[in-house]
Amino acid sequence: MPHPLDSFFAPDSIALIGASRDLEKIPGRLLSMLRKNEFPGELYPINPNYGDIDGLKCYSSIADVGQPIDLAIVIIPARAVLGALEQCAAAGVKNAVIISSGFAEEGGDSAAMQDAIVALARQTGMRISGPNAEGFYSQVQRVAATFSPTVDVKPGAPQLVATRRRIGIVAQSGGIGFAIYHRAKALGIALSYVISAGNESDLGAGEFLEYMVQDASTDVILLFIEGIRDVDKFLAAAQRAAETGKPVIVTKVGRSGAGERAAASHTASMAGWSAAYDAVFAKYGFIVSNDLDEAVYHRRGADHQPAAERRPRRGADGVGRRRHLGRGHGFHAGPAGAGIVGADPGGDHEIAAVLWRRA
Question: pTM score > 0.85 for this model?
Fold first, then answer.
């Protein structure tokens, strides 16, 4: 039976609002990644400043396309996003990914702009991911709806394939999500999807988890979460994962006071109480990891571990195992999610970690 998000993860047509010829900028890289990965559907660049981009006709507005569009990728200034989404809804676009930042994560009037996006999604039924997202990558369907360099195609580069079983990655930090994918790829682990949830104005981690639980091409799910907004949907998806025996490996950040503050400033999420999350993870048999490399290695072990034995790794204090990464007073982090990881292990008294983004 078709899933409502099939047209999101496997679109037949994509419009890129804010497309550019400049490959040094994010709008240019987005179109380039889609083409390098040989997206099999129709591509419609939208930008009134160009007549064409890389051999593709460029349209002044989405209304000028005149064809069905499954997905719009939006990368324009924040204050222009709502108007563009209203045009998408009027044109019958089913889904949108907002790459643009400058919304609830900044507070004030910027948060009000995100509230308007939430209202639009509810009013029109268009499903919206983001804002402040890094997009997604569907490896099987060849949909590279992201600017992440981890999905760049380098002709002639060797590809290690250690297993055909595929992981699906849901991350509230796009940089971390694609970094996990990059590390997994280096180990020869195949991918189904990696999705950056961003600020979750509409679509959230719970719905993305549910999609991967029911998806036949996803064998193991990796979650990187700061705080859950769509709680009921997340719990329903967790229940279904437990019932079907599909392994879920989770890295939860924002456990300490410092981590909570970092998570809130990153995607406008309050991280919540650590004990409550630990109870949920234990109830549904999630494998808990607070180290990204450990999460990837858990994935390798899941190939050989019976479903009944997949349980969170637990420490003497009864909560998920935590790895302290060292002591100190500062850290350097690439994506914001890495900063939250860095803020967590030392709690209120220590901020300790060096997590360089190598993706």
Answer: no
